[in-house]
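Q: I have 405 residues here and want to know how they pack in 3D. Can you give me a structure?
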Amino acid sequence: MALLESIRVAFEAIWANKLRAILTMLGVIIGVASVIIMTAILQGFKRQIMDQMAGNGANLVFAFYQQKPGTKAHGGTPGFSQSDLDAIERRCSLITDVDPDIQSSGTVHIADRTYTANLVGATSDFVDLRNITMASGRFFDDDDNANVATVCVIGDTINQNLFPHQSAVGQTVFFDTSNTTVALTVIGVLDEKDRGGFGTDVNTSIIVPIRSAELRVTGSSTFWDFTARSIDVSETETAADQIWAVMKEQHKLNYQDYVVDTQEGLLKQINVVLLAFQLVFGGVAGLSLLTGGIGIMNIMLVSVTERTREIGIRKAVGAPSGAIMAQFVVEAVTVSSIGGAIGTAIGYGVSALIDHVAHKNLPTYVPLWAVFLGVGFAAAVGMFFGIYPAFRASRLNPIDALRHD
């Protein structure tokens, strides 16, 4: 009952000084709202990546070239070559469906419509490895690749921009780079696929046979990454180790420039990066909560001064110091908790708005633990900064307090 009475008195004090209470809560509201919004963005990004990885399959292995500082002086061949793939297919018994890709930026156009796109040279395993489905037409096969065919498959976004009112299959499009223009016949259109902030965005890509990309667009047979699939999901890590052993043998001088990892390994790295961002953003939002806490302490000290006679009367009729202290701590916690609840609601609302407006590029997700963390931390701030004013109130001499004007 004493706690409920303290909460009732706290609400009466807040209602009696509404404007002052709102101004006191502002720091807490801004801090908690910031925490919720930043957590929602980071968690939404992580969730989308995990959804995409789950859609691709758990048995994928990624390999890419990433030159390390200082390794250029050692020599060695940059990137991957066909001899690397031949060695992997020959020596890696746990690997199947190796798919290298060559990429080039440019524009794709037909008649008066133009769209900035990414051209990807790939093998016939591209759609299977990335769990992509066809909306219409077909994907190119090994014969198209061997014959260096001038065919392509376009992503959903390109299809909507270049062929809004007609079928794209059978049409001829032109891909332009700074060095060349290639005419390509569209043989298929991909279904829309959520990129998830990870990997190639197939929606804005034009996919061609890898030999066609080498000979007709880039003029180079060197590529910078490839994807492979392990035969058994349980042996994906071992399959990645096999590929890494081959790359160390193939590139003895600069093998440090090659990275081989699984989806699980990449996800762990992403989690580390997201945690770092979470800590930085949390620190920034914590400054707002600290400011709010100082504001609460200041107002509670003012409240103690204003209610000195009230404190004296309560002590004179027998209220113990502990009850006086509890009353002011409860008031501080009530103010900060209300601010935390308002901040959580604002943060959730802004996060939902961001997700509604820009779900594909900036998805958001507010986990339940973030809501409890926001309100709980706000209450803890109120308690911490309310202890000193409450202690000061409890130490007042009842006679001096009754004499106070």
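Q: Anything worth noting?
A: Strands lie at 60-65, 95-110, 113-122, 134-137, 151-154, 172-176, 181-190, 205-209, 225-230, 258-262. The longest strand covers residues 95-110.
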